[in-house]
């Protein structure tokens, strides 16, 4: 292999036939400003047209090209191959913690199912006939909501999370961050539903606060802090209800 080529190892196969899963290695031409997605595309276009992978925007807006690169979850369209090469080689695999459909393509359904389970949907109380509510843009709650608003559902944090790996019920950092965003949104009226969802089985108290979600988020969000906020709010509500119950007794 000449210095002008890169040794690329790609994980192949699917979860439907785990015994057939394997790796293939390709010698890919090296170019200036080449991304990991460029390398994967070259393999599919020039070496093996059966290689399956997913991408869309190529500019870090959609998150669909996320893969494991040398064991680290990354957006491949924004990762320059020169920054991740080890001895002029790279290993590319599908995101972990999600079912593998084929090669580098994973099934995102479990990820989004947990968004729903965490009540990560807007709970509106007003109709189109009500006046528009004025929101104080500089309030602390709005700042907390804005902190996670740029999540694009790429699942990098979910793939990075060891708690997800060891606990199938765990909602995961993205779903919990979404719950925290809505909890702080003055226009959302689902506070009790959200706190019920995130305090139950698989909820925020399962988080071990290892911080991989925050470390690897490509948008530099902080899911770990959002989860800590949910822990505080669910705990405060628990003791508030307990105190109220004792007073009633």
Name the descriptors:
Fumarate Reductase Iron-sulfur Protein, Chain B, domain 2; Ubiquitin-like (UB roll); alpha+beta; two-stranded antiparallel ribbon; single chain; 2 domains
Explain what this protein looks like in three dimensions.
The protein is 37% helix and 14% strand. It is of the alpha+beta class and 249 residues long. It folds into two domains: 5-106, Ubiquitin-like (UB roll), CATH 3.10.20; 109-248, Alpha-helical ferredoxin (Fumarate Reductase Iron-sulfur Protein, Chain B, domain 2). The strands form two sheets. It has a five-stranded mixed β-sheet. Strand 3 (66-69) and strand 4 form a beta hairpin. Helix 3 runs parallel beside helix 7, helix 7 (173-183) crosses helix 10 (223-248) and helix 8 (191-199) packs across helix 10.
Structure at a glance:
With 249 residues, this protein is of the alpha+beta class.
Topology:
Blueprint: E1 5-12, E2 22-29, H1 36-47, E3 66-69, E4 72-75, H2 81-84, E5 89-93, E6 100-102, E7 105-106, H3 109-117, H4 140-146, H5 156-160, H6 162-166, H7 173-183, H8 191-199, H9 212-216, H10 223-248
Parallel strand pairs: 1-5
Antiparallel strand pairs: 1-2, 3-4, 3-5, 6-7
Helix pairs in contact: 3-7, 7-8, 7-10, 8-10
Q: Give the strand line-up of the largest sheet.
A: 2-1-5-3-4
Radius of gyration: 21 Å
Shape: elongated
Number of DSSP E strands: 7
In CATH, the architecture of the largest domain is Orthogonal Bundle
Q: How much helical structure, as a percent, in the residues?
A: 25-40%
């Amino acid at each position: 292999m000449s210095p002008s080529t890169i040794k690329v190892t790609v994980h192949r196969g699917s979860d439907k036939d785990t015994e057939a899963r394997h790796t293939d290695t390709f010698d890919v031409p090296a170019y200036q400003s080449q991304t990991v997605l460029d390398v994967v595309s070259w393999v599919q276009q020039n070496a093996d047209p059966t290689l399956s992978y997913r991408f869309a925007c190529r500019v870090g807006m959609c998150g669909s090209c996320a893969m494991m690169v040398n064991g680290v979850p990354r957006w491949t369209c924004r990762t320059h191959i020169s920054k991740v090469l080890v001895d002029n080689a790279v290993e590319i695999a599908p995101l972990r913690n999600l079912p593998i459909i084929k090669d580098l393509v994973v099934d995102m359904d479990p990820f989004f199912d947990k968004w729903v389970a965490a009540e990560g949907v807007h709970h509106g109380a007003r109709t189109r006939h009500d006046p528009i509510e004025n929101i104080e843009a500089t309030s602390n709650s709005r700042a907390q909501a804005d902190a996670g608003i740029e999540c694009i559902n790429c699942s990098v944090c979910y793939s990075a999370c060891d708690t997800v790996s060891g606990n199938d019920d765990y909602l995961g950092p993205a779903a919990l961050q979404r719950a925290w965003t809505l909890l702080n949104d003055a226009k959302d009226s689902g506070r009790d539903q959200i706190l019920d969802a995130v305090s139950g089985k698989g909820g925020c108290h399962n988080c071990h606060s290892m911080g991989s979600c925050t470390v690897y988020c490509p948008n530099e969000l902080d899911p770990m802090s959002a989860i800590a906020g949910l822990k505080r709010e669910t705990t405060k509500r628990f003791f508030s209800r307990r105190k109220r119950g004792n007073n009633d007794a």
